[in-house]
Design brief:
The structure holds two protein chains of two kinds.
Chain A (H helix, E strand, L loop, with lengths): L1 E5 L2 E3 L7 E2 L2 E2 L6 E3 L1 H17 L2 E8 L4 H10 L3 E6 L9 H12 L6 E5 L10 H9 L3 E11 L2 E8 L2 E8 L2 E5 L11 H7 L4 E4 L15 E7 L8 E2 L4 H15 L4
Parallel strand pairs in A: 1-6, 1-8, 6-7, 7-13, 8-12, 9-12
Antiparallel strand pairs in A: 2-5, 3-4, 9-10, 10-11
Chain B lengths: L4 E4 L2 E2 L2 E2 L1 H14 L4 E7 L6 H6 L4 E6 L8 H15 L3 E5 L2 H13 L5 E4 L1 E5 L2 E8 L4 E7 L4 E5 L17 E3 L10 E6 L13 E5 L10 H10 L2 E4 L1 H5 L20 E5 L5 H4 L7 E6 L6 H4 L2 E4 L2 H18 L1
Parallel strand pairs in B: 1-4, 1-6, 4-5, 5-12, 6-11, 7-11, 14-15, 14-16, 16-17, 17-18
Antiparallel strand pairs in B: 2-3, 8-9, 9-10
Classes of the chains: A alpha/beta, B alpha/beta.
The complex binds flavin-adenine dinucleotide (2 copies).
Chain lengths: ~260, ~325
């Protein structure tokens, strides 16, 4: 089976976030594989181990994403592809990224494409379904279970806490929700092997794309941090009095009840 | 510049979801005086059209088919694309719900358009329609505009105020006949777990429990408090993973995103993935026995103490003011 994983290198949002020069400050920040894409890598490896085939992990970004791609190889993926957009204009959005990914995938005869349901930094959740539409294949988002039998696929999808059991078929794109699996940690031998696995680097030229073809449709005009909340009021004194004070504050000061 | 803006309405258990009325309000801003057209897709949904008009839509287009009884991406995309082709709008607004998240990127890809997802505000400023949306798990915000083509956005529930309902408003509710072809993915079964009663993502008061609640029974005092306040009960991932409650109650990055007037976190430590789902709440109260817990950093009011002592006392105290008012 020919399996592809869409992997985004993301800012670790557990870290403190600051802004400088109108942008999120990336100096010294920690970067990780988008957590939902870790589930995608794990699922791809499990599907390959059960059905045979190959797992290729692809990322659109800069050379720095090599680190996250190597981690995916160390987990057990077979090949990695970095589509380097360093030279591309600054203005990219989800339209841009999806178009690039779909252009790469269009002649790869993918049976299964797995992405994350959302990137924890950009947070739009657009790239998976956009890519599926561009490739004209069905997709199922926020999945928590994937069962493959020949070309028939049964998927469990999380819908705001309810579950839908969906029947569909390959080729298919799915996006991973938490609960799909427990991603493995790369093993030491895995890390050694990963160094020798192929990591191909492409540019837009290699995909026959011009910058104009992928020019963003949207633009960020301002980035800011939420207004610093005044330090919350931690109440003190007898518990009974604290409770009375809290109810009073919610009723008369905050006026929410 | 006036624009024609379409709004995809959404139903749950046969009624329109509030987020649809909020989307109409957002569409009014985008339209800058132009026409706002509601779109209803489903089976036997045309009767709901009048309510969309009462909340501000100028008219409504309805696509009905038995294949559209349940949401599927293939079915809804066919219905909506037919409406889009007929109407050629300059703007399009969905709710940022499970349905909206699933369908909107596909429609955007089909139309080669931009899409601004999960907007919490919209305004016209400097000649542009400007959307605000949270990024970095809610730790920062960005303002975004569309630079080319359709102005397409999804709006986060409970953030944009709906217009006041005007029962005297009338408008056309017209059916569009669309032949719905084969669906490539079919729903075999829906396992409903989401609790009855107040819809969590639209509730004005949310009482949430975490691992500190310690058991399924431990949620009882939280339910009582929610009852007294007319609110809904939510949970952290920790509580769901420990089987104290169902995953349908989960709030956070992987669960529901809520923006109530009042959020009371009981025995929740305040991990970033949890905060991503509730930090926009208007007033946050934290009850935790650990004074160092991260949740106190986002709380407006905090009580350091045992939730099993604090919550019942709160319930009694709120009962008193409810009786008075
Ligand atoms: C040339 C270029 C320039 C850009 N310039 C800017 C800029 O100036 N400002 C800015 O804010 N952003 C910029 N971006 C990034 C872009 O706007 C989005 O961040 C990106 O498209 C992903 O959107 P998202 O974070 O909402 O991810 P989501 O749509 O939430 O991601 C969902 C899933 O899609 C897959 N996916 C997402 N992104 C990638 C990727 N890059 N590679 C592989 N798989 C992926 C993953 O599986 C992920 O879990 C640029 C991108 C490109 C290609
Ligand atoms: C990819 C990913 C996605 C995630 N998505 C989500 C998400 O959507 N939502 C989410 O919530 N989490 C999510 N998580 C998990 C998150 O990181 C935390 O593990 C989780 O939120 C912790 O739950 P908790 O606060 O209930 O438990 P804990 O962190 O264990 O905190 C329990 C708290 O209860 C307090 N306590 C204990 N007993 C009492 C008592 N008697 N009275 C008062 N206080 C008491 C303790 O002091 C402690 O602060 C995600 C994680 C990952 C990796």
């Amino acid at each position: 089976m020919n399996i592809f994983v869409l992997l985004k290198r993301t800012f670790d949002t557990e870290e403190k976030i600051t802004i400088s020069g109108g942008k999120i400050n990336e100096d010294g920040a920690e970067f990780i594989i988008n957590p939902y894409d870790e589930y995608a890598v794990e699922e791809a490896i499990q599907v390959r181990d059960a059905n045979g085939g190959e797992v290729t992990v692809i990322s659109v970004g800069t050379e720095e994403a090599e680190k996250q791609l190597r981690t995916a190889l160390a987990m057990g993926a077979d090949k990695a592809v970095l589509i380097n957009t360093e030279e591309t204009s600054e203005n990219g959005d989800q339209f841009t990224t999806s178009k690039i990914i779909a252009e790469y995938l269009k002649d790869k005869e993918a049976d299964l494409i797995i992405g994350g349901n959302v990137a924890i930094d950009g947070g739009s959740g657009q790239v998976g379904p956009r890519v599926a539409e561009l490739l004209n294949i069905p997709y199922v988002t926020t999945i928590t279970k994937l069962e493959i039998d020949g070309t028939n696929v049964t998927v469990t999808r999380d819908v705001e806490g309810d579950s839908e059991i969906i029947e569909t078929s390959l080729p298919l794109l799915v996006t991973a929700q938490q609960g799909l699996n427990e991603p493995r940690y790369p093993s030491l031998p895995g890390i050694m092997k990963a160094k020798k696995k192929p990591l191909e680097e492409l540019e837009l030229d290699d995909l026959d794309l011009e910058e104009d073809d992928v020019e963003a449709k949207t633009k960020t005009i301002e980035i800011y941090l939420p207004a610093k909340k005044e330090a919350g009021k931690v109440l003190s004194g007898e518990l009974n009095d604290q409770v009375k004070e809290l109810v009073h504050l919610l009723h008369t000061e905050a006026k929410v009840v | 510049m006036t624009r024609k803006v379409l709004v995809l309405a959404e139903t749950r258990d046969g009624s329109l979801r509030n987020v649809s009325f909020e989307a109409i309000a957002a569409a009014k801003t985008v339209a800058e005086g132009g026409e706002v057209v509601g779109v209803l897709i489903g089976e036997n949904v045309s009767a709901l059209g009048a309510e969309l008009v009462q909340f501000g839509a100028d008219r409504v287009v309805v696509v009905e088919d038995e294949k559209l009884k349940q949401y599927t991406s293939d079915g809804y995309a066919q219905g909506l694309l037919a409406v889009l082709e007929k109407e050629s709008p300059e703007g399009l607004v969905f709710g940022h719900t499970s349905l909206g998240k699933d369908l909107s990127p596909r429609i955007a890809a089909k139309l080669s358009s931009g899409l601004i997802s999960d907007a919490t505000a919209v305004e016209v400023a400097g000649g542009n329609v400007v959307f605000t949306r949270p990024i970095y798990s809610g730790k920062a915000f960005e303002k975004k505009i569309v630079t080319d083509g359709l102005i397409f956005a999804t709006v986060r529930p409970n953030n944009i105020a709906p217009l006041a309902k005007d029962e005297s408003r009338t408008g056309e509710v017209a059916a569009l006949s669309v032949e719905i072809k084969d669906l490539r993915a079919i729903i075999k079964e829906v396992v409903r777990k989401a609790s009855e009663g107040v819809d969590l993502s639209e509730a004005k008061v949310v009482i949430s429990g975490g691992r500190g609640v310690k058991s399924a029974e431990g949620f009882e005092p939280l339910k009582e408090l929610a009852n007294v306040l007319g609110g809904a009960v939510g949970a952290s991932r920790g509580a769901c993973d420990a089987d104290y409650c169902d995953y349908s109650l989960q709030i956070g990055q992987t669960g529901k995103v809520v923006t109530p007037d009042l959020y009371i976190a009981c025995g929740i430590s305040g991990a970033i993935q949890h905060l991503a789902g509730m930090s926009n709440s208007k007033v946050i109260v934290a009850i935790n026995k650990d004074p160092e817990a991260n949740i106190f950093k986002v709380a407006d009011y905090g009580i350091v103490g045992d939730l099993f002592e604090v919550v019942p006392l709160l319930t009694e105290e709120f009962k008193k003011i409810k009786v008075h008012s």
